[in-house]
Amino acid sequence: MDNQHAMEARPDVEALRLAAGELARTGGTLARRFLGKVRATRKPDNSPVTPADTAVQEAILAILAERFPDHAILVEEEVADPSRHAHIARAEYCWVIDPIDGTRNFARGMPVYCTSVAVLHRGQPIAGAIHDATQDVVYSASRGGGTFRGNAPVRLADRPIDADTTIAISSIRKSPIPTSVRSWLDQYLFRNIGSLCLHMVWVAAGLTDAAFSLESKIWDIAAGALLIEESGGVVTDHAGDNIWPADLASYRGDDVPMLAGTPTMHRRLLDSLR
């Protein structure tokens, strides 16, 4: 397909879901080759990065440049050749990539990380996928089409709050930690494995009841939010407001606080944050 025809085509969300899944698996497969063989350095914001992050991102972007030349990109790491992609302020579609979420785990040789790929239409996630390295499986979703683990549909259960209710809470480096969040640790079971994307996969798959982060980025949550919503869950910011549509053209890596969960658990946690 030449560029003119590509610009005229409007890909359907199911095709985009499959493409996102393919790209996420490509990234995850490549990342595995680097596991235990690379060291992290520090970016200007003091967050870690490894050669694997850069290699995975570049592999995905090369495919996107060839298959979707009229689409923009928003990615975590520095882009080697931005000119291959459409300008983010003018493109209707934008791919949002986190090449390795869980870089600290990855850099220490822990196979607890994932690759996240989402495509947004005018700032709204419409398809996305996460390759979970812990299971070597791809979770994917499309707007209105449901959530899948591999080829099998998944749906979370809106279970009652009880002694087994579990929240995945990402590390909070800002001080002070909200009093309400501290109180959750006394009321519910707590998990943190160092990957917000995987925390969101857990919610979508019904493995945990909620996920919370004060310091997430758009690339951390774009795919995971869609997985949860299409699985029957709820995703908002910490005030209960919609995160989407996002103004991608003006986004500069600011924190996007995120609360996700089953309808019952999301409502309970949101009430305590207010």
Give a structural overview:
- The chain is of the alpha+beta class and 274 residues long.
- It is 34% helix and 24% strand.
- It folds into two domains: 3-154, Fructose-1,6-Bisphosphatase, Chain A, domain 1; 166-273, D-Maltodextrin-Binding Protein, domain 2, CATH 3.40.190.80.
- Strands 3-4-5-6-7-8-9 form a seven-stranded mixed beta sheet, sandwiched between helices. The protein has a five-stranded mixed beta sheet with strand order 11-10-12-14-13, with helices on both faces.
- Strand 10 (166-169), helix 5 and strand 11 (189-191) form a beta-alpha-beta unit.
- Residues 1-8 have low confidence and may be disordered.
Total number of strands: 14
CATH architecture of the largest domain: 2-Layer Sandwich
Average pLDDT over all residues? 94
CATH homologous superfamily of the largest domain, by name? Fructose-1,6-Bisphosphatase, subunit A, domain 1
Runs with pLDDT <50, length 5+? 1-8
CATH C-level class of the largest domain is: Alpha Beta
- Give the SSE string: HHEEHEEHEEEEEEHEHEHEEH
Q: Into which percentage range does the β-strand content fall?
A: 15-25%
Give the domain tally: 2
So how many helices?
A: 8
CATH topology of the largest domain: Fructose-1,6-Bisphosphatase, Chain A, domain 1
Major β-sheet annotation: 7 strands, mixed
- C-alpha-based Rg, rounded: 18 Å
Question: What topology, given as strand order, has the largest sheet?
Answer: 3-4-5-6-7-8-9
Which structural category do the helix and sheet elements fall into?
Answer: alpha+beta
What is the terminal-to-terminal distance? 51 Å
Shape: globular
Helical content band: 25-40%
